Fold:
Amino acid sequence: MGFWLIGYAFAYSNVYKFIGFDPKLAASNGFEDIEDDNYLYFVFYVAFALTSSTIVLGALAERTKLRCYIIYSFIHTSFLYPVVIGWTQSEGGWLYDLGYYDFAGTSTVFMVGGAAGLVGTYLLGERYGKDKVRKAMQAKDEERERALKASAVVFEDNHKFEKIISKVNTEYHEAFKEWLTNHSTNEFRPYNQTYIVTGCLIVAIGWLFLAGGSCNSLFDERANIAPKVIMNTLISGCTACVLAVFIKPQVLGTYSFVNRYDCVASCGGFLAGLVGVTGCANYLEPYGALVIGITSSLVYIGGCKLLDFLHIDDPIEACPVNLFCGIWGSIVTAFFHN
Structure:
């Protein structure tokens, strides 16, 4: 609603000094009087505005009331996001006049949403109880073991424990004991990785259409047409996914008997590769997409480690994926755009 009322007018009017505003574009007031088909443009561009605002929702998960997010989303789509679009894509915008290029939103959509999410999650602080879990995990030797066992599963007697563990394959006894010891920390781990992967696949399919649709035509020059954009997007995303699966658990120290397979790493890495390549996917050689995928994965992993070090609680890793990889995607566009 915010984008329809005033956001579209702020975003796609000629900029004067700070921002422009054409009354004919506000609330579709004068679409009929304009030669270009702004009904078509609005339907396409509103998807980008909604994407940018939903990034923030993930970063603030479990700490924000619904009505507060609705208010923020209105502000984001009616002013914050349109201002950046005006600067980068409308005549008179200071970045537009400098020749700034962003093919499908690596900076204007994802970096803006990630930056807003980072500010929000920093102001809100960590989720309730996470600081206690972190302190328990950081405790050493006996202190760490005592802190974890204090809230672990407690059996009434050893007989009951032996009865349960006897049903566990001998090969997995150590893993089972680890699960018991670390039971108190499970609260802040992804509880349904099936939903996570399903959601990632839905986003990925939509992303391919978003990137391919940004060509605005299926009949442009063959070298830079939608199929090439989709191919480059897939190459970068898949490369980043594979790299994140192998490296992230080792860097963040999440690999163990219990957590051998980190689906969040694969999904986060894949999305990081998509964000990184979105800025120049149409003017990019396939080897460039491979390089961008590798580097975006490393940026994503480093971003996760940095937020963990700073005790900034981002439940779905929206900031490392969108902000850090969006910044990186804006930089690499200058090197790989041909």
